[in-house]
Design brief:
heterodimer; A: about 575 residues; alpha/beta; Rossmann fold; four-stranded antiparallel β-sheet; about 60% helix; B: about 280 residues; mainly alpha; ABC transporter involved in vitamin B12 uptake, BtuC; two-stranded antiparallel sheet; about 75% helix; globular
Chain lengths: ~575, ~280
């Protein structure tokens, strides 16, 4: 494999010295150019699902940086290339720093916002650097190769190699896994410990930097840059088309699409044919989106997935869990006076809660009493209006959800929210990569296997969550929460909807969780389970804890009886 | 500092161009806010309508007669697009991509038939201009403003005061629940998409009356009109017109006070500011 790669690299590098007609160099240059742009776009948009229509803008920044510095000021152009990348990255990061703070700016709003950025930058460039007529970029390229186009080809080859390597490395790292999780369900990813804001920002900056680099090289290639040609929407859309065609979920997908589209458009250049080419690319875009959302590469890889079940990896890790048995019974989580209102509905009105180390605490209460809100506040999904949440003596109110996860708190969702486009194994392997002890991918996968066996999901490791039934999806939620090896785990109605038989299994599982060393808070309506499992019970009504204590005592408490059954009228 | 007359004329032309932004935005806003489809092809359809008006104008057909032809035809086109998007259950983000593909196809079609050159329609209406004090007003501008105001207000009235409007609003809030209460939400969706198509035809006539036509121009309108739609509030019938006029006037004043090339910055600065300050709107 390595040998073949090296041979390929040598062949590509030797090409300019083979004395081929200049046409081939230019064509290959354009091919590589498309690969760089499509692949770099995919680093943010494909990996994290934030579709950008503004890739042309970041490419354009690179073009204009080099054009202004090398063309106008006469700087040596090789030195301008890192600056072109840096300028684009700075712009992307600056934009991201503002946009990614706003939760609503996802999906089509992000797409249209980035589209708008293209117009803004075009206007700014036109009125400042460019001034209207365009910029001539005539520079002497180093005479390493027989022709100038050969040298540019080599430069773009380097950029393509860098881009593809980045794409590969990202896809096979914690960083990439975090981005994939963001694409599927950003809120859950954050609660599982993924620092979503930082990851998106970094992906955006890297994506922009590579586009800027390609822009810098391209400024020399075209030798005359204009705003209309540079900041084009066509480029942004072509990049989306290439990536969608090849497959956005794979690091190599955009490159496959880039080659296909470039060859296709080349076949239709000049005069009448160009019009047909444009119509054809429009048609392909529609067909790809509608008929093959996973792209060419995705489609091919899907064929292969069924066959390879990595049984070899199915060895549960022998890592023993360090049970922190120190001081069982001391308070682990202390919630005091927690308040939260949703547009006038007071979901929590000064709730108090204490969870002790090593206990199973049942949290019960009628519908709408604030149980789920309490979990959402403690896990950082929502921000509390007031009150304090102290975990192991540290204040958690107001800190980002991923840091709460890292502190050792995990949760499940009442309606399971697995990452739909990650396999069961990948779902469970995510939290260990972002938990208290940060694991690498291999260690996380071993850890995930352990919890899949624990929850009897081993056979489903390579399935997608959509292929599981409700009971299995609830267990997947459990496995995912456990894989983070939390000190405290919140189970939000994991038992509801299970058959009595399945419930017995679940009860055993919850006991086993405690034996592993975690404290458990479980929200439940199934009274049988509460009475059987809980060491203590806390009852919430109208956003306030009205009783706490041993299960039987609490259930006889007059306020609890009236909350559930109404006041006695005898 | 430019003279008062020049500024007045700027504001006036801003209102007229803003009316066209609003007219183009109305169809977009309805399909985005109510059908959850971002229809980029709306612009291409409007230009197709404009080119048809131009072509029939060459054959001495009155633009208003053209409307009798294009409105039903585009109503059908709008419904066909909706059939396609719902048949394949295209997600909101993907409607953006699919309709962009459609835009490319329509653009190619226009370029193939009418070439990439600029076309300007000659019509009897274009010659009619009046002088109101120091200001000039042309009939074609008034027609655009009239259409934009009438359609926006009409749509507002329809949604606000009729049972049909109530059914549409209920469907927008929660389609399955509306269906459970006896609303035929599929039929309403077809009606809305047809209306959006018809609005594109009308906007096309206004485009042909007031502006030069060229295939590349399709993209020139996208940014500003989307800004108007997003500022006006998705699904709002009056929002695009109000936001469009605000943008149009701001642009015209920017052009008068600085250089015309700075104008595109206005709408996007307004939009970006709004996105960042009031994200809850969206």
């Amino acid at each position: 494999m390595k040998g073949a790669l090296a041979l390929c690299a040598a062949l590509f590098c030797a090409l300019p010295f083979a004395g081929l007609p200049a046409f081939y160099e230019s064509f290959l240059y354009l091919l590589l150019h498309a690969i760089v742009l499509a692949t770099s776009w995919n680093l943010l948009s494909g990996y994290s699902g934030y579709f950008s229509f503004g890739h042309g803008a970041f490419f354009g920044i690179g073009v204009y940086t080099t054009a202004a510095l090398a063309g106008r000021l006469g700087w040596p152009f090789l030195w301008t290339l890192p600056l072109a990348a840096l300028a684009a990255a700075a712009l992307g990061a600056g934009l991201g720093a503002v946009v990614f703070r706003v939760r609503a700016l996802r999906g089509e709003l992000f797409a249209l916002l980035t589209l708008a950025i293209t117009f803004v930058l075009a206007t700014v460039a036109l009125n400042t650097v460019d001034g209207g007529p365009g910029i001539q970029v005539m520079v002497d390229v180093p005479k390493i190769t027989p022709t100038a186009s050969g040298f540019l080809y080599l430069l773009m080859l380097g950029a393509a190699a860098l881009t593809l390597w980045t794409a590969y490395a990202m896809a096979h790292s914690r960083f990439g896994t975090g981005l994939f999780a963001i694409r599927d369900d950003e809120d859950v990813a954050e609660v599982m410990g993924v620092p979503t804001y930082r990851f998106k920002l970094a992906a955006f900056a890297i994506s922009c930097a590579l586009a800027g680099l390609a822009g810098g090289i391209h400024a020399i290639f075209v030798s005359y840059v204009t705003v209309a040609e540079t900041f084009s929407i066509a480029l942004a859309v072509n990049v989306v088309l290439m990536s969608a065609l090849g497959g956005t979920r794979h690091w190599l997908g955009p490159a496959v699409g880039a080659v296909a589209i470039t060859v296709l458009l080349y076949a239709f250049t000049g005069g009448e044919a160009a019009v047909i080419g444009r119509a054809l690319s429009g048609l392909i875009l529609i067909i790809v989106i509608v008929a093959m959302p996973e792209g060419i590469l995705g489609q091919i890889l899907k064929r292969f997935r069924r066959r390879e079940l990595p049984r070899s990896a199915r060895k549960g890790s022998e890592v023993s869990v360090q049970i922190t048995t120190r001081a069982l019974g001391e308070p682990l989580l202390v919630v005091q006076g927690l308040t939260k209102a949703f547009k006038g509905v007071q979901a929590l009105a000064g709730a108090n809660l204490e969870v002790r180390r090593g206990e199973i605490l049942g949290l019960v209460g009628p519908n709408g009493s604030g149980k789920s809100t309490l979990i959402n506040l403690v896990s950082g999904h929502y921000r509390a209006d007031g009150g304090s949440i102290r975990f192991e003596g540290r204040e958690l109110a107001g800190i980002p959800a991923h840091r709460i996860a890292r502190a050792g708190i995990a949760r499940t969702y009442q309606i399971p929210r697995p990452f739909p486009q990650l396999t069961v194994l990948q779902n469970v392997a995510l939290p260990p990569m972002f938990g208290q002890v940060v694991m690498d991918r291999a260690a996380a996968a071993r850890e995930a296997w352990r919890w899949l066996e624990f929850t009897n999901l081993g056979d489903k490791a390579n399935s997608y969550p959509g292929e599981l039934n409700l009971h299995q999806r609830k267990f997947l939620e459990l496995a995912r929460a456990l894989a983070a090896r939390p000190k405290l785990i919140f189970l939000d109605e994991v038992l509801s909807g299970l058959t009595p038989l399945e419930m017995d299994g679940a009860l055993r599982l919850i006991r086993a969780i405690r034996e592993q060393g975690a404290s458990v808070v479980f929200v439940e309506h199934v009274m049988r389970a509460v009475m059987e499992l809980a060491d203590r019970v806390v009852v919430l009504t109208y956003g306030r804890a009205i009783a706490a204590g041993m299960p039987l005592d609490v259930m006889r408490h007059p306020e609890v009886v009236s909350a559930y059954l109404g006041a006695a009228h005898v | 500092m430019p003279s008062a007359a020049l500024l007045g004329q700027s504001v006036l032309s801003g209102i007229f161009i803003g009316a066209l932004y609003g007219l183009l935005g109305l169809g977009l806003s309805l399909s985005w806010g109510m059908l959850r489809q971002v229809n980029l092809a709306h612009f291409a359809l409007a230009f197709l309508g404009g080119y048809l008006t131009y072509q029939l104008g060459v054959a001495k057909v009155d633009p208003f007669v053209t409307l009798a032809l294009t409105v039903p035809a585009f109503f059908a086109l709008g419904m066909a697009l909706h059939w396609f998007l719902s048949r394949f259950a295209v997600t909101l983000l993907n409607t953006l991509l699919v309709t962009f593909g459609l835009t490319s196809i329509i653009e190619a079609l226009i370029q193939w038939y009418w070439t990439a050159d600029f076309h300007r329609m000659e019509s009897a209406y274009a010659a009619l201009r009046w002088k109101l004090g120091p200001l000039f007003v042309s009939l074609t501008d008034l027609i655009t403003l009239g259409f934009a105001a009438a359609l926006s207000l009409g749509m507002w009235g329809l949604l606000r005061f009729t049972d049909l409007g109530k059914a549409i609003r209920a469907t927008t809030e929660d389609a399955p629940i509306a269906a459970a209460f006896g609303v035929n939400e599929k039929l309403l969706a077809y009606l809305l998409s047809g209306l959006a198509g018809a609005f594109a035809a009308i906007a096309g006539v206004c485009l042909a009356l007031n502006h030069t036509l060229a295939p590349v121009q399709i993209y020139a309108w996208m940014g500003v009109v989307f800004a108007a739609v997003m500022m006006g509030g998705l699904g709002s019938p009056l929002g695009p017109l109000v936001a469009g006029v605000v943008i149009g006037v701001s642009e015209a004043l920017t052009m008068a006070l600085t250089a015309p090339t700075w104008a595109p910055l206005v709408s996007f600065s307004l939009l970006i500011g709004l996105l960042l300050l009031r994200p809850a709107r969206f």
